[in-house]
Amino acid sequence: MKTHPNVQIAVSGGGSGTGIAALINGQIDIADASREMTQKELDQAKAKGINPVEWKVALDGITAIVNPSNSITELTIEQLGLIYKGNVTNWKELGGPDLRIVTYGRQSNSGTYVYWKEKVLGNKDYRADMQSLNGNSDIVDAVSKDKAGIGYVGIAYAESRQSEIRILGVKKDAASPAVLPTAATVTDNTYPISRYLYFYTNGVPQGAIRDYIKWVLSPDGQAFVSKNEYVPLPAQVVEEELKMLG
Question: Taking 90 as the threshold, does the pLDDT of residue 40 lie above it?
Fold first, then answer.
């Protein structure tokens, strides 16, 4: 807005599902999402004459966190899934303390909730007693005060508050090494729970919307991605997005 004083950008939160619904209903120009649109959402958009186009704008790693007093330092994706599905209910089953596991997660309209369900739970249901919280801050607050707690948050937020929680290494499977989430491990895809962050627009945009996306993909825009502790896009992806933008 500093470089384009004639353009006003208003941002509202609420989760990926909320933004995508607003795009489908023609209420906004850009939907921010931390997951891909579902086929059901794409069908709803088509029925309303909306043509969603996906733009990759950054990378993020989803970080599993526990209380610093917990002796557990790493888990496999399968073990994380068993915890969140309710198959493993005590930390001692995983070599940790004799405490009943308390799970914290996001609300169902969150893209992170959906991504974790797909990637970690294999699209199975979350355990019924998972405590659903509004965002990263609430989850870190809860886990930092709960010796039996486990949660999942964005890499940026976990790193900014790592004095209060323990970031777990994650193993793709039992035979793989544990990998900590960092910008490098997310970029080279060695950290197994990482994802793109997206914009969705109605068709390939023109005018101010096109200029805005082009700026986000520019070195200046991607510098803000780093500044906010997300992970910039690989150069090849930026090139592909710019080519699509025209």
Answer: yes
What 3-state class would DSSP assign to 13?
coil
Residue 98 lies in a domain: yes
Residues 239 and 159 in one domain: no
Domain contains 141: yes
**Chosen domain end from 169, 187, 205:** 187
Q: Are residues 54 and 64 in the same domain?
A: no
Q: What is the SS3 assignment for 212?
A: helix
Q: Which H or E element spans position 183?
A: helix 183-187
5 is a domain residue: no
Domain that holds residue 175: 60-187
Is the residue at 9 inside a domain? no
Give the Cα separation of 12 and 110 in Å (integer).
14
Q: What is the tally of structural domains in the chain?
A: 2
CA distance 246 to 232: 21
Nearest alpha carbon to residue 22 among 2, 4, 48: 48
Residue ranges with strand state E in the chain: 30-33, 52-66, 74-76, 102-106, 131-133, 149-154, 166-167, 169-171, 194-202
> What percentage of the chain reaches a pLDDT higher than 90?
84
Q: What is the pLDDT of residue 18?
A: 94
For residue range 224-242, list pLDDT tens digits in order: 998 877 899 999 999 999 9
In angstroms, what is the C-alpha Rg of the chain? 19
Q: What is the pTM of this model?
A: 0.79
Q: Do 174 and 200 share a domain, yes or no?
A: no
The DSSP bridge partners found for residue 199 are 32, 55
Where b means 16+ CB within 10 Å and e means fewer, 12-28 reads eeebbbbbbbbbbeeeb
